[in-house]
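Bit of a strange request maybe. I'm writing a small parser for structure token strings and I need a real example to test against, not something I typed by hand. Could someone generate the tokens for this chain?
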Amino acid sequence: MTETTNAEKLGITAGSVIWVVADSVEENALLDPLPPGVWTVDEPTDGMDAAVLLADNLAALEVHLDEVLPSLGSTPTAWISYPAHHPHELDPDVLSPLVAEYGWDLGPEVRLDETWSAVRLRQL
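Reply from user aminoacidic:
Good idea to test on real output. This should exercise your parser:
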């Protein structure tokens, strides 16, 4: 049986255009391997299929929220990924009020690996 990749868990499919916001190569590599033909971009672009914000601490997340959430427009899929080991300063209880300030809500949470989780964003 083939193991599901993190990209598949986040609904990233072949040929998608993905805006990846990460502070390190290690965070960015969390999405590897990407499906064939996936194009990652470093800034928002028209026609993006998804956006994935990876943050390993609250300060980094807060810096990126001002850039990312107002730029998503009609992007159909958006995720915030964070370290999920406990105790940790990022979890859905912390994220919910932060994204609500921008008109977003949290959807389902997905466990990516033993360290990272991701929560899907929904526009209110």
